[in-house]
Amino acid sequence: MALTKTTVINTALDILQRFGLADLSMRRLAKELDVQVGALYWHVKNKQELLAQVAAQLLNAPGLSIDPSAYPRPAEAVLHLTRKLYVALLPIQDSPEVVQVAIALQSEPLRPLVQLIELLQSAGLTETQAGFGQQLLLNHILGSVAHRQNLVQLDIDAPVADGFDFGLERAVAGLLP
Description:
Blueprint lengths: L4 H15 L6 H8 L3 H4 L6 H13 L14 H16 L5 H11 L5 H12 L4 H27 L10 H12 L2
């Protein structure tokens, strides 16, 4: 198999899914790909860029976008999109940290996050308010995913209803008319 940027990113995502962020090192990735560590740097500059690319792979999937015209109100579209993000990130170990790295680096647009800002603006928020609203909703999504993943990792039996929807609905109701 030829070493390509796609192969590097897909293998990194696989390691993340199986073992978590602590085990996703450039050395581990090179071993999985049966290459020298230096070969990886032809495709990504460093681990942070790798994580940003993994986040883009996770979030830029076609199934994570929504058609806003399918919803009678922007608030319903926002709720649906944020729920889709939560469900997509939940099974991927340490996905909140990976997404946070990608957001901090601002290296590649993450389509669902761009769409979230667009939905908030279409509901009447200014560009600045939409950015703050996106941050609020993203903090809720990532925090809820991290909480649920921690319970699983610690083998703590918790009810399926974790308050995500309650908090999400309150946040959206507070942001949008």
